[in-house]
Prior knowledge:
The protein has 258 residues and is of the alpha/beta class. It folds into 2 domains: 6-117, Cobalt-precorrin-4 Transmethylase, domain 1 (3-Layer(aba) Sandwich); 122-256, Tetrapyrrole methylase, C-terminal domain (Methyltransferase, Cobalt-precorrin-4 Transmethylase, Domain 2, 2-Layer Sandwich). It is 29% helix and 22% strand. It has helices at 22-30, 42-45, 68-81, 100-109, 122-130, 161-164, 179-188, 218-225, 242-245, 248-251; strands at residues 6-11, 33-36, 53-56, 85-90, 114-117, 142-147, 168-173, 196-201, 209-214, 231-235, 254-256. The strands form 2 sheets. The chain has a 6-stranded mixed β-sheet with strand order 6-7-10-8-9-11, sandwiched between helices. Strands 3-2-4-1-5 form a 5-stranded parallel β-sheet, sandwiched between helices. The longest helix has 14 residues, at 68-81. 40% of the residues are buried. The protein binds S-adenosyl-L-homocysteine. S-adenosyl-L-homocysteine is lined by residues 14-15, 39, 90-93, 96-98, 121-122, 125-126, 173-174, 200, 202-205, 229-232. S-adenosyl-L-homocysteine binds next to helix 5 and strand 10.
Amino acid sequence: MATQSKVWLVGAGPGDPELLTVKAQRLLREADVIVYDRLVSQAILGLIPRGVQLIYAGKACGNHSMAQEDINRMLVRLAQSRSRKIVRLKGGDPYIFGRGSEEAQALQQAGIPFEVVPGITAAQGAAASAGIPLTHRGMARRFQLITGHFQQDQPWSVQEAALADEQQTLVFYMALGQLEPIRAALLRAGRTPDTPVALVEQATLPGQRVLQTTIDAMVDAVRQAGVQPPALVMVGETVRLAQALGQPARISEVQRHV
Ligand code: SAH
């Protein structure tokens, strides 16, 4: 009997190819087919040996080149058609805002063996390269990862109580289109207008930019600086450490708007 196909849902990390896990690197070498996302960096795609079948399944905001249901179906079909090693390569970590769990459910329902390989999520990449620790004694005793993106154009909202604690680092993903409601929610939650905010664009990549601002000024600052996705919005006292702890190569990219 022919062996069955298997799918690996693999995190590619935030962009720097050296932040791939050893397991991810091995699977990129061994795969027969790789289905990858828009956020997988060119440098990482460059590590894939010639001859591997590459399928792009990226989704740009507002320009859905492939619906999630179609991606789920494609993974199942690829696995059923013949026996092979299929790598589903996703930016960051597959189980953090990556919809990897929906793909896992589809594979599970179709009876296809799969394995999840975690990756470094964008918030961890940005924390290290921009010098904004997610926790820091006396400043942040917890952190939260929050999505700025909601299904089917629903208005952005989050329980305000969740934003109120000053001793935490908040990291908003996919948030560039939702800065106004996020700012309003932070203020309604009682956060002071001068609470530090950082926008980290292209974290860990050669084009990384860090924009330092405040809750009050963040909407204007982002507009003026022309921040583009992919970017994270980081909020909290730990943002103040960016100048001191940011990686030397990146410090010149820090812009202040406060
Ligand atoms: N699974 C991914 C997140 C996918 S959602 C992870 O764990 O990181 C896509 C969002 O992630 C982007 O809109 C952006 O907010 C964030 N993101 C991904 N890579 C990034 C990078 N290199 N720099 C800044 N933000 C990034």
